[in-house]
Structures are given as structure tokens and as C-alpha cells.
Design brief:
Mean pLDDT of chain B: 97
Number of helices of chain B: 13
Distance between the termini of chain A: 62 Å
Distance between the termini of chain B: 54 Å
Strand order of the largest sheet of chain B: 4-5-8-6-7
Oligomer: heterodimer
Structural class of chain A: alpha+beta
Shape of chain B: globular
Shape of chain A: globular
Low-confidence stretches of chain A: none
Mean pLDDT of chain A: 97
């Protein structure tokens, strides 16, 4: 099904199942431990041996010598994979450094060997016996030091153009009545999902099956095939349950590749999990940024010039953190510029993490807006409303937003949060030992869409079955896909069986960039439309008059059950949604407004969030319950980026030194006592037949800036170097 | 983790003897720290002696009016003990400020005293660390040191002692009761129990080979207002940047001990003596000889501020 004109009324608009809050249909399996995760596929691959990854102890250089004898002789060892025996490997499109290093080493903890043994303990112990002599080389590990050497990266990919310019930014900025010109920095972030990267691999002849934790099945089938040099048809990926991803599992990583190589070498299934302490340096992370924002406005805060420059670093061949992208779209202003510059660093490779670009771009932009509000003496909510724009401000009025309810979010959110009680003068509100402040920030995240397929059928018992390689990374995909099928075929959610995450199923958009929910349910919609036609035809009813209700296909007073129409063989249909150019003709994005109240200890500068609240507009909210979970989870992550999350770079050794979850702090429950989410009614007829948009990443966008702005309101201290930890607050306080 | 053998001790004397006579033996109780370190091969015992069944899990009054806490009393149970809560509130509060409920259920009194530093260089076996591998150097000096110690440090090591409980024990002048490999019991004042790193940061306690902790004894209660204030990067489940254990006495005599800043739980007589002069004076006395890096110099300010906060609260109460 091609989606190239705005949606009209369709069966989803009934709102009988879709748009109603449902418990996760996969919830009972998860809480009873019966949902099989990648590392636990004893059922599918019995007798699996255990692999343990040996990572590089240096950041850059080569392997001078590798001595495997002691490891090979250790108890239970079945084999060792290294670059020397792995055969020729290709490199996937999505990873920067080879997933099996050697002889060249590109980053710390890059996998150099997989030790395989009969037990997990034997593999781990033997891995320590692999002796590697290194020939280290000097590397570059300090973004600030390399800022001056950063270059303009090539345009394209997800990043779009590196630079943009409209009007005369320099001239307008110079002439502006009020000018903000500030530098902000954000550190490297780790995804810190609960389930580590994990894979069980088995070969049957030349056919490979990987039970793996992966967000993007179809991409990764291609990556496996390319890396191993085998046909895609010989690769099967199975990923029905995933314990969190946040972008960490978008790609083929070392667990899957090495499990495949290990299983090949020993002729037996092998499973590999990347140890928690290896994740920050072996896998991907969100790159650190240095950002400069300049805003020129009139004295009422109306923007005339806005500029956002971003510096980030990556391995040679890597990409940028596109932190200025939202600044091209979020606020008006006739004179504009953005620029991304990329430095070469020899740190582990950077890549996508929840809301790449916006998550850290808004940490800067939305603080700059707070600074502008302060400078103009305009309320920060009002300032954002004054600078609202209903079209792409770079392209002009000919490219309007498909729907944009930022102003509604700001107003409704402010009202619900009690923003009117905020004292605009910083440092004036005291509650016991706490200085109390409130902050606001806009939320903005692009709405991406992608081709997505599904197969849907009815069996002889009248059960509806949906199959797609879409993944559920904890987001609730099972449930919204089930809801969509139930709505389309007039059955209850209990009568739908959803099967996900298998490359034998039709390729979906996968989970990433908050495109999954809208795209994959639209794919199910497309397949369901085809099935409806088949059912109606079989019933002998004209499709334009047939009704699908209560497990029946009806025409006037006549009806036939789905079960009877499906017959013993069942009835199946397959289709996919393909998107036309509506996302080119219209800007498609999701919006929100974050509010935060913090207390800052008057003595110790401890920051404690007292409450967070937000209002969000993201098209049709398919399942308000799981959407709320997505948003509060993302707000929590945003709070983490404001207050505590940072991979600490040791620039001498070239690694992230705090590589475990004791030292890489993410928020705990006690950090965020109260969260409130309001969804603003919105249907976006240009995003898909579902009229939905993504919501999984919107919640992180701007959340941290609201925290930072609340700290300013509480204390009068403006910090621009994230995370805003006690040491920095104390230093700022002392001048 | 390296393969190891395992035995279950049946008496304290046997445990001590076995530990001294078996090369590479370690006691295991709760295992909340040791097992993690073994998985990373930071600890590589060849033999574990399980001391969980020695009956050292009672809390009893002493004839002197104090309290004897069995070495194996779990942190959760100790924090919840009625007498501890009534007479040694700072200890209960310190315990509850540490770790998580699950860890406290498992962690023991003796094990808590013996927990090892959270210095990230100690935890990465590719990095130099004199504590983990004597003579290899200190990665933390000149590296990432925001969380590390500023008192009692040396050119060889700036690791911090991570315990909350031990800070309260230090404040209360606890003594550590042990039995040696020779079967002889001794009592070690807590002040002498933890060693400063000097040139030998791998030597962390006064325990001799095979010596086993049987209990920790608190002297009779000192009264006063007991507080434990832990300042950290998140509200729960994080090690202290700075913690202060304090007892404010009715007679103006007060005492202070500090966590997060010392190579060992930190207490100085001069700080206690300065109590009546206020937070700034106490901080100055406590921080005498502090050696900071540009990452952790904020801890000096933070000690003073934390004390100021405690004084402010004390004044609000009285």
C-alpha cells in the first residue's frame, strides 16, 4: 500500500481498540520469565557452548603477538576465534570499526578474540589466559583538544546536510537588540539498557541462525551476510524479546558476529553476551558534543537570527552527533545558520542513542532559550510561544508542518504543572534546606517513517495472527500491533496472536528513531486491508459495504464468522506500507513541553528533582498506557543526562574509565518522585493511515534542559557543561 | 573468575587455621564485593572458606554496657535492630544510606569493613593500580579522580574507602574482635583496623594471615543526636562523594567521622575538639593535610558545606 495522500476516515478511527489503554499482551510472559531472550535459547539451540570476548587493552595500535597456548590448554576450552583464523571478513555498513579487531586495533576493548568453552565460567577464566603483546600507537582522545581540527563531514545519511544557512545570519545577529552567545558541552553517554548485547548462534550446513537482541532485523541480516560473505538467504535472525535497546542494538555487534564465527569453528551452537563492563568501550555510545548557540532577538524576545554549531568526534569513517538539526526547524527567525563539524578521535565508536541529535541538541538550545527569556524579561513559556512557526523556517511557508501543537503543549503543560506559581526571579523560593525552582523546555523530535511489511491471517478458530519482523524492545510493539489487527478485523485484543522479530516474517521498519510504532502498525494496517478484502470476497460482500465487528463480517443483517470464512487452512494476506513524499512536502515532527521543579540544597548543592510534568503531541496515541511508559522513561533518561550521566574519558589511555553501572550513574526511582504526562489530542493525517507519530524518543528531548533551567531558577547558577553535578555547582557558586 | 575450591568452616578456630595454612585462601560471607572482584580477576583466591555457618550472627549486650555485633550480622538486620536504632542511631542511618536493600540483605558486618575501593582504575585490570598489582603505578593520579580520596592518600594510591557503615563504626569507637590462626583472640580499635596506603596500598587492614573477624563491639552508648549525611550524585544506590557521621552531644561535646574523602574512614581528634567553633572550624581541622586533584578539590568545600548543613539542622532542632 502506498501512502502518498493524506489519510481519510478509515477503520482505525473507530477507536474501539486503538487509542485505548491496554496492558502489554507480552507482560505475563515477561514477568513469569517464560519470554525467551537471546542468551536463554536452550529450547532452540540446546548444547550451546559459551563464548567470552577478549577486548583490546589498548586504544590504538596493533597486535604484535598473540599467544593462545595457555588458553587453549585451559579446562573446557573448545576453540578460540581471532583475526588469524576467522577468515576474510567484510565490514557492515553500520559499524565503523571491525567487530573483530586485529592486527590493527581501533579502540579500547575492541574484540580481539572469542574464547569458547563448555561452560560460561571456563570460557571467562580461559579468556584471561590469552596473552597479547601490543604495539601501541598514539591516539586522539580529547574532543576539546581536537575541536580546531574538526572538519565538515560529508552530507547524507540520517544526518542530512552538515550545514544550513538562510538569510544573513552574521549581519542580523550583530544588529540584534538582544544577543545570546554561549558554549555548551555534553559528555559521551552510554545506553545502559538492562539486557546486554547477547546472541546464540547455530549453523545448519551453510545456514546460520542467530537468536539475538537486535532492534533492526532486516538491516542486520544484511550486515551479517556482508560481514561473513554469505547470501542473505542463508541468514536467519530471531529477536522476539529484547531487554532494552535505546539504539545500542540497532546494528550487528561483536556478540552476534563472534557467536556465528565461534559456532562455525567448533561445529556447535555458541552463545555470547557482551559483559556489562565491556559495553561502554566495546560497543557504541552517544558521542560528546561541544555546541555554540547564538540567538539574536528583539527586546520582546522575537528571534531574528539563530545559529547553532556542533562539534563531535568519532573514529575515522564515523559520523557526527547531529545536535543542530532541531534548530533548523523549531523556532522562527529570518536569518539562520547551523553547522556540524567532525573531529577524528580514537575513542570507541559513536553512534545513535535515543533521539540522536535532538537529545543533546536540546540540552543546549533550550537552555539558550531560557537565557534569552531572562535577557528579554519574557516568561520562558511565552517566549517559546512567540517564536512558534507553523512551517519549516528554512524552506518557508511552502513547506508547512503536517501538524504542530507546540503552543498547545506549552499552554496545557504550564497550566497543569502550576507554572503560574513560578517566581521568575532566581534564588527566591526556599523550602527548608532547599532552594526551589521551576524550568521549562520545548520537546521536539522528528517523525521518521519507513517502509514496513506484515502478514496477517485468520485461522479456523477465528484467531487473528500477525507476523512481522518488527521488534519490541520494551516499547510495547506487541500490544499496539495486536490492537491494530484487532481494530481492523473487528475482534478483541485477546483474539490476536502477535509474532515479532523473526527474519522469516515480512520486513518491517524495525525499532529506531521512534519510527517503529507508527510505521509498523501502518504496515499491519496495509496487510489487514488486504485481508479484509479477501474475507469480504469470500463472504460475497462488497468490500466497501462490509463491516468487521465482533468476530464477524457483516453486510446489513447478514453476517459470517471470521472462523468460518478462514476455514481449516486459514486465510492470509501480506502487504507493506510504503511512504510517498508527504514527509518531504510537510515537516513531520512531534512536540511537547517539559516542566520540572527541583530543589537544590542550600549548603551542599545536591540537586533533587521534586516533580516532572509534560504535555506531548505525537499524533494518535496508539496505547496511552505504554506511550506514557515510553515518555516517563525518556524523561528519566533526560534527567540523567542533566544530572549524572557521563562516560569519563581518560585521555591518557583512551577509554571510558567508568565502564560499569556502579560508576556510570543513571537515575534511580528515588531521583524522580513524581512524573506526569499529558497527551494532547492530535491526529496527523499526513504521517500514516494510523495518523500516529513516534513517541518513544520525544520524552527525552528537552527533559534535561527543563532540569537545567529549573536549577537556574532555584539558584541563579547557569551551568552549561553537562552533567550538572555537585562539583560544578559548588564551583559556580564560589565564582 | 579463576577456578577455586570451597569448604565450609565448622568453627572459628578451624576457619582461621585453614585460612592461614591454605595458600590463596579467603573467607567468604555475603560475597557482595568478593564475588564481583573474583569475576573480574581482581581477586583470585584459590580456596574459599565459607564462614556463614559459624553462628556469628547475634547482637548481644556486653557486660560493659555496650553491644557486640556478630561478624555475620547482615546489614539489614543490624540497621533494623531495636537497640542499634535507639542507642546507636548513626550506625543504623549509615547502613541504610549504603548499597541497596538486596545487597544489605546479604552483606555482613565484617564484610562491610573489608569492602574494597570503588576506584575505577582498581576495577580495570588493564590499567595500572598499585592496590591491585603492587608496583604497577597509580592510574588515578593524573586520571579521572572525582570520586577519590583527599585524605590519607599517598603517591602510590588515592583510592577512597567506600563504606558508610565503617564511618559510623569509626565515630562510635568500635573495636574489631578477631581470632588469629594461632587461636588467639585480640581486639583491634577501629582506628587502627584500616591501614593508610603509603607505599603498600594493597595492605588494607591490620588483619594477619588467617585472622578472622568474629564480632564488632561498640562501647556503651554516648547519647546525643545521631546523624549521618551522605552526599552523592543520585538519591540512592551510589557511593558517597562526601559523608559525615556526627553525634552532637548535649554537653556541647560532639564528634565527627567522614566517608568518601579518606583512604580509610576518616576521623581526627582536632575536628571533634573544634565542634563548638562550628562547621568551618570542624572542616578545617578534619581536612588538615588534604591532598586534592583538580577533579576532587570540590570535596573540601563539600565537607564544610555538609557540616554546615548538619549544624543548621541541629540548631533548627534545638
Amino acid at each position: 500500500m502506498k501512502f502518498d495522500t493524506p489519510a481519510t476516515t478509515n477503520p482505525i478511527d473507530k477507536g474501539r481498540v486503538v487509542g485505548v489503554a491496554h496492558d502489554r499482551i507480552d507482560g505475563p510472559a515477561k514477568v513469569t520469565g517464560s519470554a525467551p531472550y537471546a542468551y536463554e535459547r536452550h529450547d532452540a539451540a540446546p548444547n550451546a557452548a559459551y563464548g567470552w570476548i577478549v577486548g583490546s587493552a589498548i586504544a590504538k595500535g596493533t597486535i604484535a603477538a598473540m599467544d593462545l597456548r595457555a588458553a587453549e590448554a585451559a579446562p573446557g576450552v573448545l576453540g578460540i576465534v581471532t583475526h588469524a583464523n576467522a577468515g576474510k571478513l567484510g565490514k557492515g555498513n553500520y559499524n565503523t570499526a571491525p567487530l573483530l579487531g586485529g592486527p590493527a586495533i581501533m579502540h579500547y576493548d575492541q574484540a580481539l578474540a572469542l574464547v569458547i568453552a563448555d561452560t560460561f565460567e571456563n570460557a571467562r577464566a580461559a579468556a584471561k589466559l590469552v596473552r597479547i603483546d601490543y604495539a601501541p600507537q598514539d591516539g586522539k582522545f580529547d574532543l576539546a583538544a581536537e575541536q580546531g581540527n574538526a572538519v565538515k563531514p560529508p552530507d547524507g545519511g540520517f544526518s542530512g546536510a552538515a550545514d544550513s544557512a538562510v538569510g544573513d545570519f552574521d549581519g542580523a545577529f550583530a544588529k540584534a537588540a538582544v544577543r545570546i552567545d554561549q558554549r555548551y558541552t555534553t559528555p559521551d553517554h552510554s545506553h545502559a539498557m538492562l539486557e546486554p548485547h547477547a546472541t546464540t548462534a547455530a549453523w545448519n550446513g551453510d545456514k546460520l541462525t542467530l537468536w539475538t537482541a537486535n532492534q533492526m532485523i532486516a538491516w542486520s541480516v544484511g550486515e551479517v551476510a556482508k560481514t561473513l560473505g554469505i547470501p542473505k538467504a542463508n541468514v536467519r535472525l530471531v529477536s522476539p524479546y529484547i531487554g532494552g535497546g535505546f539504539g545500542a542494538k540497532l546494528f550487528l555487534r561483536a556478540d552476534a558476529l563472534l557467536a556465528a564465527l565461534g559456532a562455525k569453528q567448533i561445529g556447535r551452537p555458541v552463545k555470547v553476551a557482551i559483559a556489562r563492563s565491556q559495553i561502554p568501550n566495546n560497543t557504541t555510545h552517544r558521542p560528546a558534543t561541544i555546541q555554540r548557540i547564538r540567538i539574536g532577538a528583539d527586546k520582546n524576545g522575537v528571534i531574528d537570527a539563530i545559529g547553532h554549531e556542533v562539534w563531535s568526534g568519532d573514529l575515522p569513517g564515523g559520523g557526527t552527533e547531529t545536535a543542530a538539526m532541531q534548530t533548523r526547524l523549531l523556532y522562527g527567525g529570518a536569518h539562520r545558520m547551523t553547522a556540524h563539524r567532525l573531529a577524528t578521535l580514537d575513542l570507541p565508536e559513536g553512534n545513535a542513542m535515543r533521539a540522536p541529535g535532538e537529545a543533546v541538541g536540546l540540552l543546549a538550545l533550550e537552555v539558550a532559550m531560557d537565557e534569552l527569556a531572562e535577557a528579554c524579561g519574557v516568561d520562558p513559556v511565552e517566549l517559546r510561544i512567540r517564536n512558534d512557526v507553523q512551517y519549516d523556517p528554512e524552506a518557508g511557508t511552502q513547506r508547512p508542518y503536517s501538524s504542530r501543537k507546540l503552543v498547545e503543549c506549552l499552554r496545557a503543560g504550564a497550566d497543569r504543572f502550576g507554572w503560574a506559581k513560578r517566581n521568575p526571579k532566581p534564588g527566591k523560593v526556599r523550602d527548608g534546606r532547599w532552594l526551589v525552582g521551576m524550568g521549562v523546555a520545548s520537546a521536539f523530535r522528528n517523525n521518521l517513517v519507513g517502509k514496513s511489511g506484515a502478514r496477517i491471517g485468520v485461522d479456523g478458530a477465528g484467531k487473528v495472527i500477525v507476523e512481522t519482523d518488527m521488534t519490541d524492545i520494551g516499547t510495547g510493539s506487541y500490544t499496539i500491533i495486536g490492537q491494530t489487527a484487532a481494530e481492523m478485523l473487528g475482534v478483541s485484543l485477546d483474539d490476536v496472536i502477535v509474532r515479532l522479530g523473526d527474519s522469516r516474517f515480512p520486513a518491517s521498519a524495525g525499532s529506531g528513531g521512534q519510527w517503529g510504532a507508527n510505521s509498523s502498525t501502518a504496515g499491519v494496517y496495509a496487510a489487514a486491508m488486504a485481508l479484509r478484502a479477501k474475507l469480504a470476497e469470500k463472504a460475497g460482500y462488497p468490500i466497501d459495504q462490509a463491516q468487521f465487528d465482533d468476530g464477524l463480517v457483516k453486510l446489513g443483517d447478514q453476517s459470517q464468522t471470521l472462523a468460518a470464512l478462514a476455514g481449516r487452512e486459514g486465510l492470509w494476506a501480506e502487504d507493506s506500507i510504503e511512504f510517498g513524499d508527504l514527509d518531504k512536502r510537510y515537516v513531520q515532527a512531534t512536540f511537547g513541553a517539559h516542566f520540572c521543579e527541583v530543589g537544590v540544597d542550600v549548603d551542599t548543592a545536591e540537586v533533587r528533582i521534586r516533580r516532572m510534568g509534560g504535555a506531548f503531541a505525537a499524533g494518535r496515541i496508539l496505547n496511552p498506557k505504554s506511550a506514557r511508559s515510553q515518555v516517563i522513561g525518556a524523561m528519566t533518561m533526560g534527567a540523567g543526562s542533566a544530572l549524572m550521566e557521563a562516560l569519563e574519558v581518560d585521555t591518557r589511555f583512551g577509554l571510558f574509565i567508568n565502564h560499569d553501572m556502579a560508576e556510570y550513574a543513571v537515575p534511580v526511582h528515588a531521583d524522580i518522585p513524581q512524573q506526569d504526562v499529558l497527551f494532547i489530542d492530535e491526529l496527523d493525517d499526513k504521517s500514516s493511515p494510523m495518523k500516529a507519530k513516534g513517541v518513544g524518543e520525544l520524552g527525552i528531548c528537552g527533559a534535561g534542559a527543563a532540569v537545567a533551567n529549573a536549577i537556574y531558577n532555584a539558584t541563579g547558577l547557569r551551568l552549561r557543561d553537562y552533567p550538572l553535578t555537585i562539583d560544578k555547582l559548588l564551583k559556580a557558586q564560589m565564582g | 573468575m579463576k577456578p577455586f575450591t570451597y569448604s565450609r568452616a565448622t568453627s572459628v578456630a578451624d576457619a582461621a587455621k585453614a585460612a592461614a595454612s591454605t595458600q590463596g585462601a579467603r573467607f567468604i560471607a555475603g560475597g557482595t564485593n568478593l564475588l564481583d572482584l573474583m569475576k573480574l580477576q581482581i581477586e583470585t583466591p584459590t580456596h574459599l572458606i565459607d564462614v556463614n555457618h559459624l553462628g556469628l550472627d547475634r547482637i548481644e549486650p556486653t557486660p560493659e554496657g555496650g553491644l557486640r555485633i556478630g561478624a555475620l550480622v547482615r546489614n539489614t538486620d543490624l540497621a533494623a535492630d531495636k537497640v542499634v536504632r535507639r542507642d546507636y542511631g548513626v550506625l543504623s542511618r549509615a547502613l541504610l544510606a549504603g548499597a541497596s536493600g538486596q545487597l544489605r540483605n546479604k552483606a555482613t558486618t565484617a564484610g562491610n569493613l573489608l569492602q574494597r575501593t570503588r576506584c575505577p582504575y582498581f576495577y580495570d585490570t588493564n590499567m595500572p593500580c598499585n592496590k591491585r598489582k603492587p608496583g604497577s603505578g597509580c592510574g588515578a593520579i593524573g586520571g579521572i579522580s572525582r570520586s577519590l580520596a583527599i585524605l590519607g592518600v599517598s603517591d602510590a594510591c588515592i583510592a577512597q574507602h567506600p563504606s558508610d557503615m565503617a564511618v559510623a563504626m569509626r565515630l562510635l569507637d568500635a573495636q574489631v574482635d578477631t581470632v588469629g590462626a594461632d587461636g588467639v583472640a585480640r581486639a583491634i580499635p577501629i582506628a587502627d583496623f584500616h591501614m593508610l596506603p603509603g607505599d603498600t596500598p594493597h595492605v588494607e587492614t591490620a588483619l594477619k594471615s588467617g585472622e578472622i573477624i568474629t564480632s564488632v563491639t561498640l562501647p556503651k552508648p554516648i547519647g546525643g543526636t545521631h546523624v549521618y549525611r551522605k552526599v552523592r550524585d543520585r538519591a540512592s544506590y551510589a557511593f558517597a562523594l562526601v559523608s559525615v557521621a556526627a553525634v552532637f552531644g548535649k554537653d556541647g561535646g560532639s564528634r565527627f567521622a567522614f566517608g568518601g574523602i579518606g583512604a580509610k574512614p576518616w576521623r581526627t581528634p582536632a575536628a571533634d575538639a573544634a565542634a563548638s567553633s562550628g562547621a568551618k572550624a570542624v572542616a578545617e581541622a578534619a581536612l588538615s593535610g588534604a591532598r586534592t586533584t583538580h577533579h576532587n578539590d570540590f570535596k573540601k568545600t563539600l565537607v564544610e558545606r555538609t557540616l554546615a548543613s548538619l549544624y543548621r539542622q541541629k540548631e533548627a532542632r534545638s
